UniProtKB/TrEMBL annotation:
This is SET domain-containing protein. PANTHER family: UNCHARACTERIZED PUTATIVE METHYLTRANSFERASE. Gene3D superfamilies: set domain protein methyltransferase, domain 1. SUPFAM superfamilies: SET domain. InterPro entries: SET_dom_sf (IPR046341), SETD3_SETD6_MTase (IPR050600). One of its GO terms (molecular function) is protein-lysine N-methyltransferase activity.
């Protein structure tokens, strides 16, 4: 019995009611499919299971509460080694994400360990010897979800790949910065858990960094946020949990225009077909894939979180790091103000207002930014010539330190002011504009647009953003040779093999034993050389799972290379829009022209 078949039976045995079929979706792993011929027979569901309920008209799926995986559920599981790990970390420090990834990680390793024992030793595992007994029907044991964990696929995202490979194919891109930061964060988190805390000491199979990264990628690629549902219908089912993994529904793939919707109620999670799906499926022989929307995400986020991109993605925006010029004479008071107002040094630029939050403001015709981004750019553009000033606001109380008695004079005070950076004790650096103290964003909002110099500030902002975009364009162009070098370096071992000669069970080709590591990264797909994770092994056949994993990596590398070109095109397009906006400002504003003329005379 395949893992998918076992999962399907487990899901329906435990209350899932569905008109959706699990099938392989071309190029997208397993997906969910619907056709009107799959209408349920109510007689098949009555009195079979305490969970089962008939589906309403237009309803396609019910996943009961008992199958929703959340932090609260994980904490309740009677799985000793997992519970010890949670106690070491302390429950108050276990986030929703960490609880779920530790659970799926521990269960995945247990299943792989059992499979290896069966394969290599042909022994029967005594359930009593396992921390969680397999196929236990008790919903409070971690192994209750074993059939679900077994069917979770190997996830391939840029974060899961060899960092050197990623640096080659994403060289110079904004996405590479995010991937490297995420990878470093996961490495530090794993080191803290495994090294500093010893959180995995009692696990039957200790996880590796790669295992931990897989669990994190699996979580982000499948999790649903329930909080929006609580806001809409006022129901939280008595739980504070927001993030949930939802077996069965989480096989639905993403589309920019989804044809299903979901909601949560006291029975569980329900899925409904959009009118477009139900109408188009009147032909009983037509089977259509159903799609969720993961949100309005550009290809940058889709590739980062899920490992895929959409061709002609309608959502397009980029987030740019905007570090402040350290030579700015008001660098420190500006930086302190931004930190106090919790404004990070980055901006997100949208090509469509509908793709962003409600507070988007027009940067120039065709480009939009958030209100926070606008505040950031205002501060960056302001100078002393515009009336900008700063002062130190004295604290109510000062901290003192005792001097070494050997260095004191008898008649001097035994204390001196401490040289500290804490605003509460040494005072705050506060900005002023034309004498008005800018204590908060409300004051900034009321003062800046009223400045006579405001048209010039808007032009400066266009120049600032255009310069930053030009920097990223140059970075991609300058690192172009690194992509070529990545293709010529043996980052991972590779073998030559003919996939068509493999049997359904993944038997090796006749000449596999003679295969040698390739001198380059791998096979040639189009114009993109891609790696192969398969290594020559004279004793073990290549499995179908290995072939699937390699196909995922091959597709991912191709998408990374295509994404790099896409980001370059997007940056160039934004740069052109900003250039045109600067020209219009100069040509249409008499104030700016006279201001620039005065500046030239002063010089």
């Amino acid at each position: 019995m395949t893992p998918l078949t076992s999962f399907y039976r487990w899901a329906h045995r435990n209350g899932v009611v569905s008109r959706l079929r699990l099938k392989v979706s071309k190029g997208m792993g397993v997906g969910l499919f619907f056709r009107n011929a799959d209408l349920p027979d109510p007689g098949n569901y009555k009195n079979k299971n305490k969970h089962r309920k008939e589906l309403d008209q237009g309803e396609l799926l019910l996943v009961p509460q008992s199958l929703l995986l959340s932090r609260s559920r994980v904490i309740q599981f009677t799985c000793p080694h997992l519970q010890k790990t949670l106690s070491i970390i302390e429950h108050s420090n276990v986030s929703e994400r960490l609880a779920i990834i530790l659970f799926i990680l521990s269960q995945r390793l247990l299943l792989e360990h059992r499979a290896q024992q069966h394969q290599h030793h042909s022994i029967t595992i005594d359930p009593a010897e396992n921390p969680c007994s397999k196929h236990d029907d008790n919903e409070q044991t971690g192994d209750f979800f074993a059939d679900y964990i077994a069917v979770l696929p190997d996830v391939s995202t840029p974060v899961t790949l060899d960092p050197d490979l990623v640096r080659g194919y994403l060289a110079g891109t904004l996405l590479l910065d995010s991937v490297c930061a995420k990878r470093s964060k996961l490495e530090a988190e794993f080191e803290h858990l495994s090294g500093n805390l010893g959180a995995f000491e009692d696990w039957p199979c200790r996880p590796t960094l790669e295992n931990f990264i897989w669990a994190d990628a699996t979580f982000w690629s499948r999790v649903l946020s329930f909080r929006t549902q609580w806001t809409d219908n006022g129901t939280s089912n008595g739980s504070d949990d927001d993030m949930h993994m939802v077996p069965y529904l989480d096989f639905a793939n993403h589309a920019a225009y989804p044809n299903i919707r979901w909601e949560v109620d006291s029975d569980g999670l329900r899925v409904w077909g959009q009118e477009s799906l139900l109408q188009d499926s009147k032909d009983l022989s037509v089977e259509r894939e159903v799609f969720l929307s993961y949100g309005n995400k550009p290809n940058t986020e889709l590739l980062f979180l899920y490992g895929f991109t959409l061709q002609d993605n309608p959502t397009q925006f980029l987030t740019l790091a905007m570090p402040m010029d350290e030579d700015d004479s008001y660098y420190m008071p500006k930086a302190h103000s931004l930190m106090r107002w919790e404004i990070p040094p980055r901006i997100t630029i949208y090509l469509k207002k509908s793709d962003g939050p409600d507070d988007l403001e027009e940067l120039c015709p065709g480009l939009w930014i958030t209100r926070q981004s606008r505040y950031l750019l205002w501060l960056y553009a302001l100078s002393e010539d515009d009336g900008l000033g700063a002062f130190i606001e004295e604290p109510e109380s000062k901290v003192c330190v005792i001097q070494d008695s050997a260095e004191q004079d008898d008649d001097e005070d035994a204390h001196e002011e401490a040289d500290l950076f804490d605003e509460d004790v040494v005072g705050r650096l506060v900005l002023t504009i034309n004498g008005t103290k800018v204590e908060n964003l409300e004051v900034l909002e009321s003062v800046v647009p009223k400045l006579d110099i405001f048209p010039v500030i808007k032009l400066r902002i266009l120049v600032l953003v255009a310069d930053r975009i030009e920097y990223y364009i140059s970075r991609i162009m300058e690192t172009g040779d690194r992509v070529q070098k990545a293709e010529g370096v043996e980052i991972v071992r590779a073998v030559q093999y003919d996939k068509d000669n493999h049997s359904a069970r993944g038997s090796p080709t006749p000449d596999l034993a003679e295969a040698q590591p390739a001198s380059r990264l791998g096979r040639n797909i189009g114009d993109c050389l891609v790696p192969t994770i398969l290594e020559p092994d004279h004793t073990q056949p290549i499995t179908s799972r290995q072939l699937e994993a390699e196909a995922q990596v091959s597709n991912l590398v191709t998408m990374m290379k295509n994404y790099r070109a896409e980001e370059m095109s997007l940056l160039v397009g934004m740069g052109n829009v900003l250039g045109e906006a600067q020209t219009r400002c100069l040509e249409e504003s008499d104030f700016i022209q006279s201001y620039l003329a005065r500046m030239q005379l002063q010089e």
